[in-house]
Amino acid sequence: MVALIVKADDIGVALARNGGGSIAGCISRAFGRALVLGMPGFLTFLGAAGTAAMIRVGGGIIVHGLEVYGVHSVGQAISSAAEAAAHALPSAAGLVKWIVAAFLLGLLDC
Question: The pTM is what?
């Protein structure tokens, strides 16, 4: 997957240059151009999402370490806050719970 992401713009350039006068060639060129134009935005999103995920993981490691030493209140507070937010928005409970927990865990990692 990483190799495909790294080479996606090269693949897009190759698709945009190739193709004949057929409908398939026209679609291939259009897809190649779209791939080249879309990669900067995709890579920006991927960088932000990866950074957020690593901050969440770091916060989880800190909470786990605290629990090993008998400090369970921090993890319980984060879990309770995430549950409360999920109950406030039941239509998106799973997503809201994850976002709140990730945000609070990220605060611990800063």
Answer: 0.69
